[in-house]
């Protein structure tokens, strides 16, 4: 058994969740950034429970959770049974090719037979069952056959349960099919889906959508700390995003100048070669880069990466186009034995300071799995799913055991397609893998306020001259040095030497503008509109004199706020910089909620959760789908002079002792 020590923030999280349970909540969501120890907190929460079921998306996570749950801070000595297909989960419905491991060599007993699980429950008074979401129906049938309910259920990576109602992965939310006394739902990426009456399937039939803002299904949401707070508290590593461009012509010239490259899978792939050259180029100028995990979208692509690596590196000049030391690459997928996978990870752990070791995979290490000693992750192929991007980035955010101060590197290769030099600059930029880099930066800006600030600063530093009339001298480009453009804090590093000066600045401007400008420009336009007598709620059809769709953009940002898609930094920017700004979609004379409106929210919250105690850190869902700090408002009322009628309104909801309850966020 391996002991896991608990940090102060984890102890506080456990105390908060236990307090919610004491209040009567039987469902609750805990949002914790990747790498901050969700599994450890979940294990510690269940130490005193008898029958515990833990749901995870993959067999890979069953293996990892088994290590934690049997530790001295988990449930040591209690019988454990896995409920899963030992060959791995092959269909999670996430849209990409699945790549899960098998249980071979893991030393964990597994079944998919409900009678076997029922017998296990009847034989042992205390049990831990580790189940994939795909096998949730078996856990429900077995516990019902045993005539009881699970005392506690951990729904790890609980965002997997949201989506279309009735899918197998949402079964653990259904107390009839899977009776659980208390549900603890953990996620790094909550899925808050805008629900519409127009939601239909391919046949036009109305479908019900499950969203994590539904308090009846999920309970209150608690966020112990943000991604940035985890970095500042030195729980996670800080990071740099490196966008490295490689031209198609550069790759083709390299191939043509050497003996034709023939690999086990056929001739070399240009896009793969460009991504590998980008990594090798960056590693050459950053010798601290030793252990790297590359993420592909398909197992075949991952294999090709590894097969092509040796031939490509042999063509490059050590110390010039590639690091001077050894540069090796191997592939791992879920069909390999546990021993082979462990050997692959050992190469990352043991790589020397003068070498580069790359391990490629598809999804086997993409969600929840801890990977040791990583210096960097490479998104070898474009990913558009925000949760996927956050999970991949989270693999590198763990503090490096050899150097806790080392920044993680997120490398984004960009292939510059060949283009006629006479074409406009914007056309040349458009013929790149621009969107993939933009998607990653946008996702990180949403998750991390520091990244949003870095991008905003970078845009301000290079926004003049405009892209259609760029300066022809690289030295005149603000923030540019020999084709490398960086934010002042170094968090964003864009190597666009493959473009040339004019196109380099155009590419960077387009990338940064697309990541930040929607909200920055809108806020400025609204300030000008209001200063000239305009309303903070411009009509949807309103356009400015130069054709800017002001009304449409203002409505869109309010919709994004209602769907909880805005980063707190964006919300704060509008509230602080736009006079009289309101998030409500229709004008109102008062900017704040009335006391009666707050009490209505309180009544609705109690009705949905079934609990008449509200702690100061609790939030609820407002009428437009926004998160509302209900607990903070109630705390203010405890210290305010209320009229008798107002006090009676709150008493009717919470009972006569509501002023003395004073539930604190420091339980």
Ranges with pLDDT <50 over ≥5 residues? 92-97, 260-265, 464-479, 663-667
Separation of termini? Answer: 30 Å
The CATH architecture of the largest domain is 3-Layer(aba) Sandwich
The chain-level structural class is: alpha/beta
Average pLDDT confidence is: 82
Query: Helix count, per DSSP?
Result: 22
CATH topology of the largest domain: Rossmann fold
CATH superfamily of the largest domain: P-loop containing nucleotide triphosphate hydrolases
**How many strands appear in the DSSP assignment?**
23
Q: What sort of overall outline do the alpha carbons produce when their principal axes are compared? A: globular
The biggest beta sheet, please? 9 strands, mixed
Strand content: 5-15%
**Gyration radius, to the nearest Å?**
27 Å
Description:
With 667 residues, this protein is α/β, with parallel strands linked by helices. The chain has 4 domains: 8-225, Rossmann fold; 228-513, Rossmann fold, CATH 3.40.50; 515-577, no CATH class; 595-661, no CATH class. The chain is built from 22 helices and 23 strands. The strands form 5 sheets. The chain has a 9-stranded mixed sheet with strand order 15-16-14-17-18-11-21-20-19, with helices on both faces. The protein has an 8-stranded parallel sheet with strand order 4-3-5-2-6-8-1-10. A hairpin with a 2-residue loop joins strand 12 and strand 13 (266-267). The longest helix is centred in the C-terminal third of the chain and has 31 residues, at 501-531. The chain is globular, with a radius of gyration of 27 Å.
């Amino acid at each position: 058994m391996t002991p896991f020590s608990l940090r102060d923030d984890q102890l506080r999280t456990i105390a908060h969740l236990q307090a919610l349970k004491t209040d009567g909540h039987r469902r609750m969501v805990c949002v914790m950034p990747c790498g901050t120890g969700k599994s450890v907190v979940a294990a510690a929460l269940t130490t005193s429970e008898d029958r515990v079921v833990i749901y995870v998306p993959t067999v890979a996570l069953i293996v990892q959770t088994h290590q934690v749950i049997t530790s001295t801070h988990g449930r040591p000595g209690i019988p454990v049974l896995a409920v899963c297909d030992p060959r791995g989960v092959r269909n999670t419905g996430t849209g990409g090719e699945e790549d899960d491991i098998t249980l071979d060599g893991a030393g964990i007993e597994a079944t998919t037979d409900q009678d076997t699980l029922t017998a296990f429950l009847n034989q042992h008074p205390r049990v831990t069952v580790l189940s994939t979401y795909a096998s949730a129906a078996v856990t429900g049938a077995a516990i019902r056959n045993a005539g009881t309910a699970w005392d506690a259920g951990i729904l790890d990576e609980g965002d997997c349960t949201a989506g279309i109602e009735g899918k197998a992965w949402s079964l653990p939310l259904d107390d009839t099919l899977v009776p659980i006394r208390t549900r603890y739902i953990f996620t790094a990426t909550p899925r808050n889906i805008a629900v519409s009456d127009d939601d239909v399937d391919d046949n036009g039939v109305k479908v019900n959508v499950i969203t994590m803002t539904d308090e009846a299904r999920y309970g209150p949401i608690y966020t112990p700390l943000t991604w940035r707070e985890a970095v500042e508290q030195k729980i996670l590593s800080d990071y740099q995003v490196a966008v490295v461009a490689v031209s198609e012509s550069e790759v083709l010239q390299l191939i043509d100048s050497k003996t034709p490259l023939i690999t086990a899978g056929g001739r070399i792939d240009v896009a793969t070669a460009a991504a590998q050259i980008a990594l090798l180029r960056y590693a050459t100028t950053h010798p601290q880069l030793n252990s790297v995990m590359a993420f592909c979208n398909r197992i075949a692509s991952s294999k090709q990466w590894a097969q092509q690596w040796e031939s490509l590196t042999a063509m490059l000049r050590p110390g010039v186009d590639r690091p001077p030391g050894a540069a090796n690459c191997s592939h791992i997928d879920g069909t390999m034995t546990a021993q082979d996978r462990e050997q692959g990870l050992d190469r990352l752990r043991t790589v020397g300071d003068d070498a580069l070791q790359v391990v490629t995979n598809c999804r086997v290490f993409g969600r929840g799995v801890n990977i040791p000693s990583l210096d960097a992750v490479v998104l070898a192929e474009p990913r558009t799913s925000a949760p996927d991007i956050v999970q991949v980035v989270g693999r590198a955010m763990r503090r490096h055991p050899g150097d806790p101060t080392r920044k993680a590197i997120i490398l984004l290769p960009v292939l510059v397609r060949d283009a006629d030099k006479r074409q406009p600059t914007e056309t040349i930029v458009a013929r790149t893998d621009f969107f993939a880099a933009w998607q990653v930066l946008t996702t990180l800006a949403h998750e991390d306020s520091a990244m949003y600030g870095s991008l905003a600063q970078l845009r301000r530093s290079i926004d003049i001259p405009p892209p259609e009339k760029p300066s022809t001298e690289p030295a005149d480009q603000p923030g540019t040095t020999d084709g490398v453009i960086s934010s002042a804090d170094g968090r964003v590093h864009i190597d666009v030497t493959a473009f040339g000066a004019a196109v380099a600045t155009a590419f960077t401007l387009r990338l940064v503008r697309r990541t930040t400008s929607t909200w920055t420009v809108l806020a400025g336009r609204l300030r000008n509109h209001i200063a000239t007598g305009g309303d903070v709620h411009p009509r949807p059809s309103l356009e400015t004199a130069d054709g800017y769709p002001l009304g449409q953009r203002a409505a869109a940002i309010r919709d994004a706020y209602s769907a909880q898609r805005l980063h707190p930094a964006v919300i704060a920017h509008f509230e602080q910089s736009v006079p009289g700004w309101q998030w409500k979609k229709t004008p109102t004379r008062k900017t704040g909620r009335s006391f009666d409106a707050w009490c209505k929210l309180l009544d609705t919250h109690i009705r949905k959760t079934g609990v008449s105690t509200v702690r100061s850190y609790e939030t609820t869902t407002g009428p437009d789908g926004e998160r509302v700090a209900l607990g903070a408002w109630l705390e203010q009322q405890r210290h305010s002079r209320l009229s008798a009628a107002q006090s009676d309104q709150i008493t009717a909801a919470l009972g006569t002792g509501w002023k003395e309850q004073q539930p604190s966020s420091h339980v």
